[in-house]
Amino acid sequence: MNTVITLMSALSDPTRLGALLLLADGKERCVCKLMEHLNATQSRMSRHMGVLKQAGLVVDRRDAQWVRYRLNPALAPSTKAIIKAVVAAAAASEDIVGKVA
Amino acid sequence: MNTVITLMSALSDPTRLGALLLLADGKERCVCKLMEHLNATQSRMSRHMGVLKQAGLVVDRRDAQWVRYRLNPALAPSTKAIIKAVVAAAAASEDIVGKVA
DNA sequence: TGCCTATATGCGCTTAAACGCATAGGCGGT
DNA sequence: ACCGCCTATGCGTTTAAGCGCATATAGGCA
């Protein structure tokens, strides 16, 4: 049930929000790339991605030695709408992420 | 800065999200009414409303012995958009709140 | 097999959130 | 002045989040 709570919790951490913003373009990224961009250690990033995955926001795929994450393509429309609004707001307010390469 | 994180944190608690949903109609409600609807104790509700206020989501007004809360009418458009999406999602998914009187 | 890179996870620690209880303060009515 | 209702807050406790460190697991390549 309380999907919204789960979603809000998932996005209430800077690293996780940052990851979501990075993945918002729909493309895949491996953990190591996310680490770089978000200035996170390996275990931290891995765990945060685990939380996002658990929340159903992202899916992962093994590709050789990498694990590539991307936005869950099967998100509920209402969830998608929230994410879209969040991404827009974060982009507008120069939030976190900032300089993305 | 990280307005979005603050917002997400504020909404990642059932009682607070419930309060926001109740106030989403723009009308005022005193703490006691919120307590009733959300099944919360007095101190809990008061504190949660404090968090929402701190986050800038609601404003309060003293009216005799009551303190009436309402959505902050001066919310940033991007924040408003997020809230709107959240309210829609929560309403759709039969989240929390449920039976509002 | 052995080694290197990439990722996940067990463990212990630290910090912050949330709660209940009790109390204080604001306001109205008697 | 006193009492009762409504709300806020200090305090101590419990619970959960997040972190780093070390280690395990998985795949590629020599």
Automatic annotation (TrEMBL), chains A, B:
Domain HTH arsR-type: 1-94
UniProt protein name: Metalloregulator ArsR/SmtB family transcription factor
Keyword DNA-binding: yes
Keywords: Arsenical resistance, DNA-binding, Transcription, Transcription regulation
Organism listed in the record: Rhizomicrobium electricum
Alphabetical list of Pfam families matching this protein: HTH_5
